[in-house]
């Protein structure tokens, strides 16, 4: 069988990731190389959105949309619309009744007018008094029934979103069905509290009453969540009113439920919902600033949406300890921003998963870390930035050009000898075979002998033991030079690993103490919030590294923004003193002298311009013969890499 492989042309590559995960890492790398931690860099990436995906929203885009929705909801209307409408209908009914009574000269008419005059001032009390009143006016009786229908629909709609339309033209059978639904619902909740509820029970309930729940919940938990959020919104509506409004509307609700025969069932339901979802803001106050009066159901819906948007805003900000995208409720995103926003959120979640699955991120003990693979890529990125600022003519990096067993190709070749490890020069080998009679008439194959083989010559490189000493003290962060120092360390590590693999590089960080920094530690490294610049300890560690490689050419580079202020005592502890003590300077310069005897030139990159530092580095240069640089933080990497390449060429 024959197989052919080629580019896939029948649509998007089914095996391709939904985005370039390396581009996502590079986006994170910009922040990490500027001093951010991996977790903060990932959070910033998620806020901005997918690199190169203009049609996908980031968390910040969603957050702006949520805040706009909250502002629109707050400006939508007032909470007292039902009260206002109820008062208007009550006044209309009383006016119609008075108009009917006025022409009648009888004592009964005057008695009725007196009864109307003594009605309670609050709307609920007046409606309660008029519930047993015998209306003389048919129009007034109809208006009062319209008022009671309004209250029944609004009160029930404030608890069950689908009941207002179901009770638009109520009849005794419709109300009886509502009462039976609430009884069955409470029984189902009680059964669940005893651990006896099954999905079959819920399915039977929904088959009977599903038209009353437009949200179409799939199980009891979803139904409880829907009802609890609405009940909590009703409580928030009452809490947001003035005391008088709260008293009037509360009275109307209580009175309406009593008349509908639902008081006990509603009380049972409220207790069950609160017990299951006490985390909801049941009595928080909200402020709506619009002019349009909202009905009770519409006001509860607005407050319910506001609560959703408030919680969603908190989750989208991701600014609390341990924040993760899994904290964002997809159902809340769907309700607030639509289905497309759920897709955008899922795409953001895939970033973190892909970075972990492709070996760039690792969660260790709950902490997000970069893997060595990610650090190598960030180092390459830092190195590219450095080289982009260097002139092409300054990139030479070889020192000895005699043919050897390792190094870069010179363009020439020589006959193969036993033990050679250089690559075979295929073209010259075949040419030698043809010239030496390796082709027979009628045969296209070339017969090769040992004498025909040639190998490509390479230039020999001397190995170097490289020590980069990086100041980690608090002053580096204060002066804004720490991010540049970290980028420089990553760039040098990447340069040595890619172009000088035979070199032995060691990066040493120093503050009050010094320590060797591993390559995979560099990207997530942060400065030390301690006092002390212990260059003495750093030079001790660097000296041991050079001594382990006695045949390597020594290269020592120091990046610092301050003179030594600490040294290592004989007992291993650090001694700090500022201004620097005579003992600190003496011990540090003693290590400089040892470096000089090792033939190691120390080049110092000075990131500050104070007189004490200048005096110290001038003394180092005088004793050691090295050079002193004073680059800006932006050009530190360029200076260090250029100087390293110069030293490699010189040797």
TrEMBL record:
InterPro entries: VWF_A (IPR002035), vWFA_dom_sf (IPR036465). The lineage of its organism: Bacteria, Bacillati, Actinomycetota, Actinomycetes, Streptosporangiales. Residues 393-415 are annotated as: Disordered. Residues 463-646 form the VWFA domain. Residues 393-402 have a biased composition (Basic and acidic residues). This is VWFA domain-containing protein.
